[in-house]
Every structure is written in C-alpha cells, then in structure tokens.
Design goal:
heterodimer; A: Cytochrome C Oxidase, Chain A; 74% helix
C-alpha cells in the first residue's frame, strides 16, 4: 500500500509547521551535537585511561572514576535527552498538525536544561559525584533538570490533545510514552536515592533507572522515528498497525520490571532479579515484532537505503536495537548473566543503547528534519557517508570488543584459583579496542557537527533536490527516484 | 490513552520499587538467639559495628573518585559465582564464617555502593585483606609497586608525597579514604533466623 500525494494545502500547512519549529528544534539539535562531541572525547579519554592506567597520574581530573561518569552524563543528558526532545517536538507538531506556538519559552527552558547538564558533568568531573551511574550528581542538580524538562514538555502534551486527526499514529504513542515515562523514572530514582533510608534499594533503583532509561526513553523515541521515517521515505504504509500496537503495549507493560538482573546473587530478594530477567527476555519479543514489522514495510524497497541518509541511519539503528534486546535478554538469563555481570559487557550494552541504536536512529531523524526546518539541504553527501561508516565501525568495534572482552573477563573471574589481575590482563586488549572505537566515533561526530553547524548558520545548499548518498547533490528529486522505484 | 500509559507503568513502579523501598526502609534488626552463640552484639545489623572512622567523609571520597565504577562491594552466594572462594573476599574465612553479603551489611550507608563493574577486586572485606594503614596507603599511591599486573591507577593527587624513596605523605582526604577502606568488613554473623529463611 502506498501513500497518496499531499495536496498543495497540506504542503503549505507542513511548511508553516516546519517554520514554527525552526529555532527551538535547531537549538536542541545543535546544543545536543555539541554535547555529543564532548561526550565522545570524554569517552575516548576515559577508555585511554583504562587502557594505560599510569597515564596522567598526577591529574585528579583525568581519573577513570571521574571521566567515565562525566562522559555518560554528557552522552545521556547532554546529547540523548536534548536530541530526543528536538525530535519529539518536531514529530508531535507534524503528526498533530499543530504549529509550535512558544518557541522562545522552549529555548529558555532548553537553556536551563543545558545549565543543568553542565552542572551534572562538571560536578562529577570535579569530584562531587556519588558513584551511581547517571544519577551521580549532587542532590541540588536534579531539580534543575526536572523543572526544565517540565517546562519543555508542557508545550508538547497540549499539541497531542488538539491533534488534527482522531487516529493516534503509532509514532505519537511512542512519543507520548517517552515524554510521560522519563520524568516518572527520573524523579522516582532521585527522590528515593537522596532519601537514603534503604541503602541497598538505592543501588537497585539506580540499575532500574539505567535500564528504564533505555527502554522508556531511548527505545520509544527511536521507534517513533522509525515508524515515521520508514513509511515516509519508502512511500508505503506501515506493514501492520496492530503489530505495532502490540509491540508498544508489550514494551510499556514489561520495561518497568527490568533492572535488577544486573545484581544476580546480590543482597536483594531473589524474586527481584528473576522478575527483571524474565521481563528483559519477553521484551525481546516486542522489539523483534517491531523490527520485522519495519523490515516488512521496506520489503522490495530496500535499495532506497543506499541513497537516503535518513533511512540508512534509521534502519541501522533498528538493527542495533534488535541486537541490544537480544544481548540484554541473553545477559538476563542466569546461565550467561552470572559471568557477564560486572564485566566489560555491561559497558558495551549500555553504550549500545545510548549510542548504538538510539543515536543512529536520531541521526536519521536529524538528517530528515533539519533540511525541512531550515529550507536548505545538507552541504555534502560524502560527509554524511563518512559520518555513517565511521559511526558503524566505531559501534561494531565497541560492541564486539566489550562483548568478547566481557566474556574473557567474566570467564577469568569465574576461576577462583587464578589471581585476580589475570582478569585484567586477559581483557586489556579489548579495552584497547574500546579506545579505538571511541576515536572512530569522535571523528564521525566531528563530521556531523561540522555539517550541522553549517546548516545552523545558514550555509546549507540551496537546491530543490535533497542531498543523497552516491548521487550528485540536487540531481534527483528523492531517494526513491534514485533507487529507480518511482 | 494517558491513563493506560500510566497504569501499565504504575504496576512495576509500585511493586518493584516503592513497596520494597518502604519495606527495606522500615526493616528492624533481627535479634540473635542463644543458638547463634554470638557475644558482644544482640541483633543483626548492629550499626555500632559498622563504622567508617570518624565520619562518613571517607565514603564520600570513595564515591567522588568513582571507585565504585571499578570495584564492587557485593559477595555473591556460590550458586552465582566463586566470590567467597577468593582469598579474603568472604570475610572471616579462617573461622569458617565466610559469607555472601546481606542487605543489613550496608545499614549505616546512605547508598550501598554495590558497584558497576569489577575491573578491580571486590572491596566488601578489604579491611580484612589489607592489614595495615601503611599498606593501604601504598595501594592507593603506588598500586603497581605492589602488583606489576595491577590495572589500578595511582591516586597521587591524594598524597603530598608519594614515592618509595620519599615515602607516602597523605592528605586529609587520603586518611579519610583509608579510614573507610579499613572499616570495610561486611562480616557480622547472620542470625540463624535469616539463614534458615524463617
């Protein structure tokens, strides 16, 4: 089934919505991209420090224990949350057919969010952290983030309520879920941890927060993008709307139970890690349904992905989501989990969520959205291709190194009669791989940031045709035409 | 739609997070019985036995330096891993009392620093393994001097001087951190009531 061509009235309505979204959405995208560069550089230096422990011994700011959490804070709150908010704003405006009415208020709230992120990164880096990943800033920082988030999403919910169609698009459902669930987990986790009355549960809540962030922010936004981009670019309706709904409700019902499988054998009642493990395994079903649904939508039109940057990044992101769900389910079983917990595998898994599937899909959305809101095309298809391949090399290197390194390290730790340092030595080559991976990712993001900055300052290419991969800029009217599928 | 989204998440939020949090916040110490044969303490956990030197300051340094990103404080039962078989990890092993960690072991901490990775050794009972403060300082200031294969970085910024020739002159932060590390002994005997699951 293919879409009907939009009427001129619909085209001008979309253009008006895009114009209204221009400044707030670009603000979120550019500040997110700047944080991404900071995050990848911190990721590189933290991996280098782990690889060569004696490096910068005299400098307190270059310890792994400070660089790694600062890197994660910048990656999640600086990049992933802001890029996600930019996508959410634009998607909700387009799907609900509403203009963005208060761009200045959104930019002010966004600036407040950036201030919160700066505090979150700097305080941890300067030695005021509490060793709880992604929640390790001082207690006064999280209200800044929570308030600025509320000031942003308060403009999104009314757009949904006054939507033009009575039908709820599947992308709208995912966006709405992410927007509601994130503050719930964020506020709950911070309140309980700072209350400090149940120390063991605080650690459990931290693990719950990390996995819920993946399933309740990263995954829904990536899926909202995929359910928008794949039909748009292929010109086909989603293969099965009911299947998409099933996967949404499965994810919604199960994700909240995950997290405690990270502490198998830990000081918790055994049912908690068992339930968490089972939930992660069943979520695999939701993700596989979605990926199959999207691939079926693309069936016979996969050639478009050679030319369309948005589709290429989005499809790769979806494949990584399937890999994430598979590895997450595998490590939630007792058979694998008991050796993989606390190994390098955990870092690989978290990075696969925050960078592997989420960021790649968001790049797909940014390559789609920015030309529409700025009215100009990306300057170079070649640089988009470089961004794609270096990101792919980086992600694959990172995931393989951390997975195999995690198995090597976990296997060594499981042999009690080996000295402990054997586990460090056996995995050190893989840690070097992690370092190389972040160098590749940093380079790819430099390409991305450069192009985005050009678009931001109005140096985009003025042309009717889009910038595609493998095609001279402006020569073809769409990726579909380039693939010979019109 | 919004109600349904809230409801599906409210279930795990309530049953996995809020109720267990309240229950653990209100957990009362379990009294020892005569059969436990414990002297000097009446119940588990006994907060008087869990002290980090003069204050909580050392634990804050441990957290701020990100020690928990490489070190766990969680000994698993043997079905999950051989943690207790590693020398010194399980606590009072010479007395046959090595054990996995229990929730009460963290009773005086605001947050249990269970850890994110295990790149370095588990520290639940490091106070048993490293016998003197001098050795602990050496571990922090020059870990490779003690084990050439160690992957731990030296924390020289916590020391005014740190070399074999000049010795180790700690700052106040290093002293507090060592206070905390030396106090890490999650070894209080577990009452029979918990061990038997009653």
């Amino acid at each position: 089934m293919t879409f009907e061509q939009p009427t001129p009235e619909e085209m001008s309505e979309r253009a008006a919505i895009d114009r209204s979204a221009r400044f707030p959405v670009l603000f979120f995208f550019t500040s997110a991209a700047a944080w991404l560069l900071v995050a990848t550089l911190l990721g590189f230096f933290s991996s280098l420090k782990l690889c060569v422990p004696g490096l910068w011994d005299n400098c307190q700011f270059m310890g792994y224990g400070r660089l790694f959490p600062a890197h994660m804070n910048a990656l999640v709150y600086g990049w992933a949350m802001q890029a996600g908010l930019g996508v959410v704003l634009w998607l909700m405006a387009r799907l609900s057919r509403n203009k963005i009415e208060h761009p200045v208020a959104l930019i002010v709230a966004g600036a407040l969010w950036n201030a919160g992120v700066t505090f979150a990164v700097i305080t941890v880096w300067f030695g005021y952290g509490n060793s709880l990943l992604l929640l390790d800033f001082p207690a006064w920082v999280w209200p800044i983030l929570a308030i600025s988030y509320a000031l942003i999403v308060v403009w999104i919910l009314p757009m949904f309520r006054s939507r033009g169609d009575s039908l709820i698009y599947i992308s709208e459902m995912f966006v709405l879920g992410a927007v509601i669930w994130f503050p719930w987990i964020f506020v709950t986790a911070n309140l309980l941890i700072n209350k400090g009355t149940a120390p063991v549960m605080a650690a459990g809540v931290n693990a719950w927060f990390i996995t819920n962030l993946s399933y309740f922010w990263m995954a829904p936004i990536a899926l909202a993008i995929a359910y928008y981009i794949v039909p748009k670019i292929s010109g086909r309706a989603v293969f099965s709307y009911p299947l998409a709904q099933v996967s949404f409700w499965l994810l919604a019902a199960l994700a909240g139970w995950t997290g405690f499988a990270r502490f198998m054998g830990g000081p918790f009642p055994a049912w908690m890690s068992a339930v968490s493990g089972a939930a992660a395994i069943f979520i695999l079903l939701a993700i596989l349904i979605t990926v199959v649904n999207l691939l079926m939508t693309l069936k016979g039109a996969t050639k478009i992905w050679e030319f369309s940057p948005s589709l290429r990044f989005t499809v790769f992101g979806m494949l990584m989501l399937a890999v994430y769900a598979l590895l997450s389910a595998m490590s939630s079983t007792f058979l694998f989990g008991k050796n993989l917990q606390f190994s390098h595998f955990v870092v690989g898994l978290d990075t696969l969520a925050f960078y592997g599937f989420f960021s790649m899909t968001v790049f797909g959305a940014i390559y789609f959205i920015v030309p529409r809101i700025t009215g100009s095309e990306w300057p170079s298809g070649k640089r988009i291709r470089t961004h794609f391949w270096f990101s792919v090399y980086g992600i694959i290197t990172l995931v393989i190194c951390m997975l195999v390194g995690g198995i090597a390290q976990g296997g060594s730790l499981a042999q009690w009669d080996q000295t402990f340092s054997t586990s460090f030595v056996t995995s050190s080559a893989y840690v070097a791989g992690r370092c190389i991976a972040w160098a590749l990712i940093s380079f790819s993001n430099l390409m991305f940031l450069y192009q985005l900055a050009l678009m931001f300052i109005g140096k985009g290419r003025k042309s009717a045709g889009p910038t595609l991969i493998h095609v001279e800029p402006g020569k073809v009217e769409s990726a579909k035409a380039a693939a010979g599928l019109n | 739609m919004l109600g349904a989204l809230g409801l599906v998440f409210a279930l795990p939020w309530l049953f996995l997070i809020v109720i267990p949090f309240i229950q653990m916040s209100n957990a009362e110490p379990i009294p020892y019985t005569e059969a436990d044969g414990v002297e000097g303490s009446t119940a588990y956990p006994d907060k008087a036995l869990q002290r980090y030197g003069a204050s909580d300051y050392g634990r804050q340094i441990y957290a701020a330096e990100g020690c928990a990103y490489c070190h766990t404080q969680m000994i698993r039962p043997t079905y999950a891993g051989p943690d207790m078989w590693r020398p010194g990890w399980g606590g009072r092993e010479k007395e046959g009392l090595a054990r996995a960690t229990h929730p009460g072991d963290y009773a005086t901490e605001k947050v249990a620093l269970l850890g994110y990775q295990r790149i370095g050794q588990d520290l639940s009972n490091v106070g048993h393994r490293i016998k003197s403060r001098e050795l602990m300082h050496q571990h922090l200031a020059d870990p490779k001097g003690l084990d050439p294969n160690s992957g731990m970085p030296a924390y020289k910024h916590l020391y005014k001087k740190s070399s074999v020739r000049e010795g180790y002159v700690p700052t106040g932060k290093a002293e507090a951190l060592v206070d905390y590390l030396m106090s890490l002994k999650k070894d209080q005997q577990i009452p029979g009531a918990i061990a038997s699951g009653s």
